[in-house]
Amino acid sequence: MSFRHLLLLALGILAAAILLSVFRNPTQVISPLGKLGNPSPTEKPLKKYSYKSLKTRKSQEGKITIDKILKDDDRFTSYRFFFTTGGKRVSGLMNVPKNISNLPVMVLIRGYVDQTIYTTGEGTRRVGEEFASQGFITLSPDLLGYGSSDKPSSDAMEERFQTYTTILDLLESIKTLNEALEKQNLPLARTESVGIWGHSNGGQIALSILEITGATYPTILWAPVSKPFPYSILYYTDDANDHGKALRKVVAQFEAEYDSELYSLINYFDWIKAPLQLHQGTADEAVPQAWSDILYDTLKEKEIPVTYYTYSGENHNFNTGGWQTAFDRGLSFIKKELGLVQ
Fold it and tell me: Helices H, strands E: what count in the chain?
């Protein structure tokens, strides 16, 4: 038999095998190329940042280390500290009270600050020093791309979502805080007694963290951004040099591949278990009062414990007369919720 006849015979047998497979199971055709015929779909890289995916994510314990002294006060000492998230190093400002031990911890999450003027602890410095003066260790992460931190993702949307994973990993890393304090002969912390303070976009991050974790960290919110994503970022594009053109393009590309509803905090308020205290200035131009009014009503409707204070004529930073009152109310709230007072 010639080579040509052998080749035709082999092809005939292969065709018969395929036809037999179809006859036996008409809904499934087995490719003669095996696995190459049915490549598995590629996982979308930002899917892991949806709220439902983050809820199942295991937070990473990145050991806290204490670096140089930034300020030495009669009541506290300020240090630069570091921890890790996703293999990247993040810097921040830590305040440690003097001559007191068994200290509760406050995690302070700032709002937006222009990178060109940013220094470690910017946006939380005053509130951190006040909490430290009242016997709290405070941790203010710079976030990726700020201070002495490593760079964030080059993807603008992922950079935003990395703020959630950074705070989640910082909260997990508090387990290592006493090891770092002990190495420096500093007072130790009550690592099970943790509260959160968040301002502006930091308030949005705080709300997201409470949703994702379902934890009961008592949380103070100063003028939090609480509108749905991506409106919550597009709202602030007016002042950009291009009036938001570049950002709108990024958002459009994101929404072409992902369901933005899965990345919007307003859809997951039901997951919050923590007590909240909400503060809002009536003259706030960055976060309109109506946003906090709606947030308060929504939280109350969902039976989430929340107290709401408004400040007549006060601006976004509470620096026209209401700052100390807002802080004192927050301090009393945190002390009560952490069981520091009767």
Answer: 10, 9
